[in-house]
Specification:
The complex is a heterodimer. By secondary structure, chain A is an alpha/beta fold. Chain A has helices at residues 45-52, 75-85, 101-106, 116-129, 145-157, 175-192, 203-207; strands at 2-11, 19-29, 34-38, 60-65, 68-69, 86-89, 163-167, 195-199, 211-216, 219-220. Chain B is α+β, with helices and mostly antiparallel strands. The chains are: A alpha/beta, B alpha+beta.
Amino acid sequence: MIRIRSVTKGYPRHSGPDLEILSGIDLDIEDGAFEALMGPSGSGKTTLLNIIAGLDRPSSGEVQVEGQELTTLSDASLSRWRARSVGFVFQSFNLIPVLTALENVQVPLLTTRLSTKERATRAHTALEVVGLSERADHLPRQLSGGQEQRVAIARALVTDPRLIVADEPTGDLDRKSADHIMTLLSTLNSEFGKTIVMVTHDPEAAERCKRTRRLDKGVLA
Amino acid sequence: MTSLTLVLRNLTRHRARLAFTAIAVTFAIVTLLLLRTTLWSLTANTSEGPQDRLATWNEVSYAQPLPARHAQAIRAIDGIDAVTFATWFGGKHPARPDEQLTVLAIDPESYFDVYTDMEVPAEQLESWRADRQGVILGEGIASHLGLGIGDTLTLEGTVFPGAWTFRVQGLYASTSNAVDRSQILIRWDYLNDAADETQREQVGWLMSRVDPRRGTELATAIDEQFAAGIRTLTMSERGMQQYSLGNFAAVMSALGVISIILLLIIMLVLGNALAMIIRERVREYGVFAALGFSRRHVVLMILGEAAVLGALGGLLGSLGGYLLIDQGIGPAVEESMGSLFPRFRIPLALHLTSAGVAIASAVAAGLVPALSISKIPAREALRRTT
């Protein structure tokens, strides 16, 4: 599913050598995996997740996801690839405040050629999967944090990608809501066959994953 | 949900800001419409007036009269379809001494054969021709003075001193924007008979109807006809109007400059609103990028919002302009200043242009911030807190 070889990532500084965030990362993640990436702040977890999801480019190295080499794609091609191949879940949900739950879930479908009716049908289905179909017409401010994150997960699912990446999906939630979200992600992995890569600081959330990898100072332990 | 839903919902996030922006653009568009309508109305005579009329004046000055017999001589020139003449009467309404009235003494038999764009009902024209003290009023001035058929109109003569009483026998209308609807048309023969000996058998100017393709040739022929006597200056009616408008050249240039300043104000108002909108949503644009929206999508989304904002301002401005000008000051201007502004209404093309200007200004104002925001890497945009 994911094959990463010799990936480095650095950012230029005002003076001196580049600030190196990732150093020589080699990583293989199997199809159907459910993995947690852990490590201290600044260790490069989110950067690695962004590179896997095609949201950032490595300074060097190869990144293959589902057989597609991402480093050779143009920005526009990478956007198209992201739209059909990856679902994103963010720590702070990032729902559009003026759209209802149903409309938020439809946002990724606006770049497709689906009809308005088909988009609505798919979004309803995604909301049913996360158990929120009865909240379809609610605005984000009318939902609890846990419900907002479930809507965000429905939004990640609606294009039916094989890969879901989640950056601290339980970071803004209380324990009970975090457990619900982890249960939902586990279900998506076990019953819907989604490959899930998740960055987390939360050991309890990491325990629910099939595998945990640790990153420290840009190097996989 | 469609992209338009997203654009509209985004626009209404801050309703107070939307309202203030739309109101500011509306005021600017209304002012722009007022300026452009003024310019359009001033030049309507030269751009929309008929092309088949030649005006003949005394070569010395517009104020100098010509002999009435010149009409016969012009009529004899090959290619002249019809000839008429008129004289400036220069009357004042006793109850409205400050108002400038356009009172012309015209030849009852030939005037409307040349001015074919002025329409008088046949029976009214017949009544006027049968009444030497009859007067035909433009619809605008009739409404302004509150006069109708059968009413009496008394004027204080300035060029021809004394109190002159007329009976309203007809009203003229026109479908042409170039026709002054504020004219008061009395009979030249009545004036001629009543005038002093020194003022008889004289006219202010002559007007000929010709084939427009032969206009220049016939204008020369007319002036050559009188080369040996009281010399004339003949030019097309449009040319004459352009000559008159020369006096307003500076004012018209100033109005043009103010129009451009207004466009810049519209762009600044919209640009400021859009810059605020964009700054507040950097993180969201990062989310859109993460969800597969390309740079082009993000730019189009912002420009779509800009276009709708501009269209809203343009629409409200157009409506405001219609209410202020077409339903408000326009009729009053036509009635009291019809010789300068024969038709003071917003042309449809100007409505459409102003709406287009509002949309184009908004899109132009949004283009630079939209392009710059789309260049922010998604990972960086997602880290922004505002």
